[in-house]
């Protein structure tokens, strides 16, 4: 029997709905509504680059234009409905998922202990209990609060961490400490039991099953490797074994999904996904500017497969070798990624400065499209706390 087929248009449609970009954005973007967004996405990546606004805030703004950065803090720091830890990178995650992070803690301990000891030496090992005692005594601390004499902190990056800062990070990654808040963008750590609500750790087998199911729910269709990469807790072999078992039990099937450039390949999906995609509402024609870390484009290969859109961040590319710019933002219109834009919030001047727009081949700078872009940039300017949008003379060349 031939595998069910999901054409590329339907695949983009279901993918965008699963990533909460299929409907016209609405909602207050705070409290329960904001929790529903983060729960639906699974997590929101945290990043420090603040060209317009930090990545986690832009991800949420793209789905809720009423969202403002001040709306996230109560959920993280007061109500503890969210916690900060690691997926593929630092992220904010619903606290109800916390029992399954004990799998990550155990695996981090196994991987990191020997490696970090080689990196930092005996001073790191001896500092672990010392740091725990200091946190018990002092309460919440930053890395610089525990700096050894002659080393005032973590200037110069992670490679220049002093042993106590390294111990704080190790104890956070392995679950003994938690991030209780950030000051500026610096993490402030405290004992996990003083930050997280009481909970029972998940059994490892239970957590592997939950993580794989939760990844599949949010991806819609995926290879076993994409399932493993979603949370970055489960190994590829565990995800592959899970997929085979779920397929044998009739809870997954293999379908063929069309690529943007033609052709198709096999993915796992829940039975009935093809019919669900066919019945799904058309994607809104709204134009949105996305964060470079938006979950819809985080898997660059998957993004290129579905949308024919190649993206990479050029922060670490020498300026002369950049194709676009330091930190350019993808543009989503309807179910297409139509281009990218270079812009920066100049808060002292009260300006969102737009330097350059690049549209994808075959996408025209029509009056209607530019009007939609202008409206979105005005929304972004308000979100960034500036008064107006300024365009460079050659921004459209």
Structure description:
The longest helix is centred in the N-terminal third of the chain and has 20 residues, at 101-120. The N and C termini lie far apart (52 Å). It is built from 14 helices and 14 strands. It is globular and about 65 Å long. It is α+β, with helices and mostly antiparallel strands and 397 residues long. It has helices at residues 8-18, 31-41, 55-63, 72-78, 101-120, 122-138, 163-173, 192-195, 204-219, 224-231, 236-248, 273-279, 300-307, 367-384, and strands at 5-6, 44-45, 82-86, 90-94, 177-183, 186-191, 221-222, 253-258, 264-269, 287-289, 329-333, 336-346, 351-359, 388-391. The model is unreliable at 149-156 (pLDDT under 50). 40% of the residues lie in helices and 18% in strands.
Computed Rg: 22 Å
Poorly predicted regions: 149-156
Largest sheet entry: 5 strands, mixed
The class by helix and strand makeup works out as alpha+beta
Gap between N and C termini? 52 Å
Strand numbers in spatial order across the main sheet: 10-11-12-13-14
Provide the β-strand percentage band.
15-25%
Relative helix content: 40-55%
Order of helices and strands: EHHEHHEEHHHEEHHEHHEEHEHEEEHE
Q: Can you tell me the overall shape?
A: globular
* Integer average pLDDT: 93
Number of strands: 14
Number of helices: 14
């Amino acid at each position: 029997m031939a595998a069910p087929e999901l054409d590329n248009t339907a695949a983009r449609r279901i993918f965008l709905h699963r990533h909460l970009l299929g409907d016209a954005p609405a909602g207050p973007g705070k409290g329960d509504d904001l929790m529903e967004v983060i729960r639906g996405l699974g997590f929101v990546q945290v990043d420090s680059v603040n060209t317009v606004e930090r990545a986690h805030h832009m991800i949420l703004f793209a789905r809720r234009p009423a969202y403002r950065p001040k709306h996230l803090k109560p959920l993280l720091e007061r109500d503890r409905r969210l916690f900060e830890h690691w997926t593929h990178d630092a992220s904010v995650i619903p606290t109800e998922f916390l029992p399954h992070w004990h799998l990550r803690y155990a695996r981090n301990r196994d991987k990191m202990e020997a490696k970090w000891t080689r990196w930092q030496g005996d001073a790191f090992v001896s500092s672990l209990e010392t740091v725990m005692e200091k946190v018990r005594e002092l309460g919440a601390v930053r890395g610089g609060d525990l700096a050894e004499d002659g080393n005032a902190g973590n200037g110069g990056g992670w490679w220049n961490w002093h042993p106590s800062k390294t111990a704080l990070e190790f104890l956070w990654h392995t679950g003994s400490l938690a991030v209780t808040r950030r000051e500026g963008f610096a993490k402030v750590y405290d004992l996990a039991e003083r930050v997280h609500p009481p909970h029972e750790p998940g059994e490892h087998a239970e957590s592997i099953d939950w993580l794989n199911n939760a990844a599949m729910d949010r991806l819609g269709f995926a290879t076993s490797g994409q399932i493993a990469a979603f949370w970055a807790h489960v190994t590829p072999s565990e995800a592959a074994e899970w997929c085979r078992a779920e397929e044998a039990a009739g809870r997954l099937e293999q379908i063929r999904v069309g690529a943007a450039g033609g052709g198709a390949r096999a993915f796992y999906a829940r039975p009935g996904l093809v019919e669900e995609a066919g019945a799904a509402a058309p994607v809104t024609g709204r134009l949105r500017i996305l964060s470079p870390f938006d979950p819809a484009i985080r898997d660059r290969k998957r993004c290129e497969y579905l949308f024919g859109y190649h993206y990479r961040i050029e922060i670490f590319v020498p300026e002369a070798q950049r194709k676009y710019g330091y930190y350019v933002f993808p543009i989503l219109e309807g179910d297409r990624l139509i281009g990218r834009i270079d812009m920066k919030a100049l808060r002292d001047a009260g300006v969102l400065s737009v330097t350059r727009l690049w549209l994808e081949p075959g996408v025209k700078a029509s009056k209607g499209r530019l009007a939609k872009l202008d409206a979105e940039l005005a929304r972004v300017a308000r979100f960034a706390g500036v008064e107006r949008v300024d365009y460079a003379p050659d921004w459209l060349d």
